[in-house]
Amino acid sequence: MIPARVVADEREKASGVPDELTKLNVRVYFSRLPVADYVLNPEVAVERKSVKDLVSSVYDARIFSQAARISAAYAKPFLLVEGDSNEVEGLARNLKSFYGAIANVTIAYGLRVIYTANPRETAVAISELLVHARAKPLTRLPSEVPHKAKSIPLQQIYLVSSLPGVGRRLAEKLLAKYGTPRRVMALTAGEIAMTEGIGWKRAEKIKGVMDSKYERYVEKSPQSRLEE
User: Fold this and answer.
1) Which among 8, 79, 5 has a CA at the least distance from the CA of 47?
2) Amino acid 109: pLDDT
3) What angle do CA 197, 203, 205 make, to 5 degrees?
4) What gap in Å lies between CA 140 and CA 163, rounded to an integer?
5) Under 8 Å CB-to-CB from 58, ≥6 apart: which residues?
6) Whether residue 46 is found in the same domain as residue 91
7) Residue 38 sits in a domain of what CATH number?
8) Cβ-contact 50, 57 below 8 angstroms
9) Terminal-residue alpha carbon distance, the chain
10) What is d(CA 214, CA 209) in angstroms, rounded to the nearest whole number?
11) Angle (deg, nearest 10), helices 62-73 and 95-109
12) Number of structural domains, the chain?
């Protein structure tokens, strides 16, 4: 198996992280990087800072220029903070201004923040970033209960939990009280409202969905949604 590869800034040699990466079967190449401390691929780069250096970089404004450069050079920039976060309170002159600066750079420049305790954890984090560097978001969120659950009780829970405002917990309460999904669907708004945790407003919404005549659903275009 070909080892994963990462390019590290020469100044990271003494940090202990490259040694830990080697133990994780990651091949480390050193270079004088103009931006970031670790480059994982053309899109992903990591700026590593100790807690002390992070606080210092806020007050001498380095964090802002570094955030601007790494976000301009890489599509997925990471700020990795290594050390004990409890030290921030003792190092920062003002916690509000410190966290205000961190909020500013993470939001304005799209930095993803990772916290680690020591070089070994940092190496593990970088190694996993290498593994998942091409991860894609789910095109569809998984349901709380699978559509094709083989268990009949799970199918019943899924069916009832699909009602508006009814999650798994309320679905189980309704089924425990009334026995079957068919019986639940036949309830009046008053009977539904008597179930603990539902109430009149939600009961009326549930009945409104179940009793309304179906009209063909037409998916709106993204442009139409923007214009609304």
Assistant:
1) 79
2) 95
3) 125
4) 19
5) 92, 97, 98, 101, 102
6) yes
7) 3.40.50.10130
8) no
9) 53
10) 9
11) 20
12) 2
Of 81, 83, 65, nearest to 73 (Cα)? Answer: 65
Residue of 195, 133, 135, 131 whose CA lies nearest to 166: 195
Q: Edge-to-edge, what's the strand order for the sheet holding 76-82?
A: 26-31, 4-9, 38-39, 44-50, 76-82, 112-116
User: Residue 180 is part of a domain; what is its CATH number?
Assistant: 1.10.150.20
Q: Which of 28, 31, 32, 30 is nearest to 20 (CA)?
A: 28
For residue 1, what pLDDT is reported? 59
Q: What percent of the chain has pLDDT over 90?
A: 54
User: Which of 73, 65, 76, 75 has the alpha carbon at shortest distance from 105?
Assistant: 65
Pairing relationship of beta strands 4-9 and 38-39 according to DSSP bridges: antiparallel
pLDDT digits (tens, 9 = 90+) for 159-175: 888 888 788 888 888 88
Given a cut of 50, whether residue 74 has pLDDT beyond it is yes
Q: Same structural domain for residues 196 and 93?
A: no
pLDDT in tens, 18-63: 999 999 999 999 999 999 999 999 999 999 999 999 999 999 999 9
Locate tokens 């590290």: which residue? Answer: 8
How many CB atoms lie under 10 A from the CB of residue 175? 19
Domain that holds residue 182: 152-210
Task: Using the 3D structure, point to which of 96, 131, 166 is the last residue of a domain.
Answer: 131
CA 189 to CA 86: how far, in whole Å?
52
